[in-house]
Amino acid sequence: MLRDLLENASVLEIIATFVALALIAASLLSLIYIIIGGITFILSAGNEEKIKKAVHTIRFSIIGLFVSFLAFFIVAFLARLLDIPFDLSFSLIVDLMGEILNSLQ
Fold first, then answer.
1. pLDDT single digits (tens) 6-40
2. Domain limits, the chain
3. What span, in angstroms and rounded, lies between the C-alpha atoms of 18 and 36?
4. Which of 67, 79, 92, 103 could form a disulfide with 86 if both were Cys (CB 3.0 to 4.6 A apart)?
């Protein structure tokens, strides 16, 4: 899919794909940082400074995830509002994620 996209697609389709890939990357990084924050919280052993750092890590990763999804919806809304043929949908994201996971096997 990615090879066909880069060889045969228009500029708007390539941009939409890279926006979808950026959203996937932001989601995965947010998940990783939530896990790191949870492990740091568990291993803090009551140390207030470590607990505070872990809570900040979790909080900021959730805020980052929220901001990235908000940006996704704003770009999709503006594309529809300005009548730009910008195919940016969750089905594209799911297809890309499936292709990425299949290539890892």
1. 777 777 777 777 888 888 889 889 999 999 999 99
2. 2-95
3. 27
4. 79
